[in-house]
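Why should sequence recovery work at all? Because a backbone constrains its sequence more than one might expect. Tight turns favour small or flexible residues, buried strands favour hydrophobic ones, and helices have their own preferences. The token representation captures these environments compactly. In the example below, the structure is given first.
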């Protein structure tokens, strides 16, 4: 069967008894919780190692129980509800943020669908369930989680949480478009939206090699989707105190942290499934060992890839500074979306040419010609744009920058300069003022003598 016309066989799903479904659901929940505990400790340890610090070393051996101690501490703290908050929405917001984070793991395959394992005598797949539109289900569930953050910022009755919620909403909308385009490239190449089928189509080559631009786009967008550094503007403790969760405490605050780390694990699992071969063993091992993708071994390869991507999250936080909010929006709307749409058109063109049985040389010729034509048009457009900008520059320099033009003081944008600060009085005039000269006349009086007599 051609890899470009994949047939979905989901008959092995939906046959498990109810108690086995419960066991698999509990396993998925436990997998996320344990991975979150490990991720928190790993983040603190790795960043401490990068910054030549010790890191947590008190709770448990080598500080491995630090995240568990933090969870117990947050649960025992006093739960405070802000007086001006909308109580119902204020309480439901952390739940709305946390529950969708757990739901996406239901369609992630931990092992091959045709290699069933035995649990209490019943043969079952290493996946809770699968859908013909499983990846769309992941996108839909991820979109619901943003409501928790927005409602948390609005219901707190405070300014900074509201700003954090609005920032998060704009950030999610900006980056989900590019994420959807990256997913669409995978759909076109695999011919399916089922996660198990997408992994099965990577039997000879992972999609990170076939679709490298889609992988890079998804890596950037998944960092923006999870509000992690350097895209952590919704929290941004430097200018928003703590963002949307400023007015939360105790277990409700812990649920927001839990949702963030569970989302990290979920997007890492999705990236592993779509681009890194899912549960498949890496190339040297898969070719040298025939049993590498059978039994419980696929679970090991899957977990190793997820942990590697979690390390990338920590690596980015420890090395990159937080970008400005205008830079974040510019990256999302002016860079990621055009690049993702252009790449999607390119992948669709190659897919159509392959279906028409064109050979690789013709495809490379057509695609290369199209790319060169786009670059040439872009170069000519940039020349005319630069010429127009040069012609407008003298007029802009004469006008200058007025920070009070709109009625409110605003900081200058890149390329703009504030007017020069007026010079201070000469030293001799300042000495005259201090010694009681004529400049000490108060407003409304004619001279210094009358002012002193009054």
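From this structural description, the recovered sequence reads:
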């Amino acid at each position: 069967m051609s890899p470009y016309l994949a047939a979905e066989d989901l008959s092995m799903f939906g046959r498990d008894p109810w108690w086995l479904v419960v066991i698999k659901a509990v396993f998925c929940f436990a997998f996320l919780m344990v991975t979150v505990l490990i991720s928190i400790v790993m983040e603190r340890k790795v960043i401490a190692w990068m910054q030549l610090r010790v890191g947590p070393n008190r709770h448990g051996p080598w500080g491995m129980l630090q995240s568990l101690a933090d969870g117990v501490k947050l649960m025992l703290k006093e739960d405070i509800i802000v007086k001006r908050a909308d109580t119902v929405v204020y309480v439901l917001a952390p739940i709305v943020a946390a529950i969708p984070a757990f739901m996406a793991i239901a369609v992630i395959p931990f092992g091959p669908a045709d290699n069933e394992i035995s649990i209490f005598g019943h043969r079952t797949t290493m996946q809770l369930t699968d859908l013909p539109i499983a990846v769309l289900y992941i996108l839909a569930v991820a979109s619901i989680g943003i409501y928790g953050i927005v409602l948390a910022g609005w219901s707190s009755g405070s300014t900074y949480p509201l700003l954090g919620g609005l920032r998060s909403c704009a950030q999610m909308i900006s980056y989900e478009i590019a994420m959807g385009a990256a997913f669409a490239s995978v759909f076109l190449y695999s011919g399916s939206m089922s996660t198990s089928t997408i992994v099965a189509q990577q039997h000879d080559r992972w999609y990170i090699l076939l679709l490298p631009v889609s992988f890079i786009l998804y890596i950037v967008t998944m960092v923006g989707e999870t509000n992690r550094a350097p895209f952590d503007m919704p929290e941004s403790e430097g200018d928003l105190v703590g963002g949307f969760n400023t007015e939360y405490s105790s277990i409700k605050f812990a649920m927001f942290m839990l949702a963030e780390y569970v989302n990290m694990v979920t997007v890492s699992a999705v990236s592993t499934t779509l681009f890194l071969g899912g549960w498949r063993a890496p190339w040297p091992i898969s070719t040298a060992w025939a049993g590498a993708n059978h039994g419980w071994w696929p679970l090991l390869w899957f977990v190793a890839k997820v942990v590697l991507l979690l390390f990338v999250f920590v690596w980015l936080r420890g090395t990159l500074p937080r970008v400005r909010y205008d830079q974040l929006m510019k990256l999302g709307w002016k860079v990621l979306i055009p690049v993702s749409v252009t790449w999607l058109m390119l992948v669709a063109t190659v897919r159509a040419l392959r279906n028409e049985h064109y050979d690789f040389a013709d495809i490379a010729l057509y695609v290369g010609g199209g790319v060169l034509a786009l670059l040439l048009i872009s170069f000519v457009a940039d020349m005319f744009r630069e010429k127009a900008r040069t012609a407008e520059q003298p007029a802009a320099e004469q006008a200058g920058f007025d920070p009070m033009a709109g009625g409110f003081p605003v900081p200058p944008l890149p390329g703009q300069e504030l007017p020069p600060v007026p010079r201070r009085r000469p030293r001799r005039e300042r000495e005259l003022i201090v010694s009681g000269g004529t400049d000490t006349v108060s407003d409304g009086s004619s001279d210094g003598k009358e002012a002193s007599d009054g």
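A few observations help interpret the result. The longest helix spans residues 360-399.
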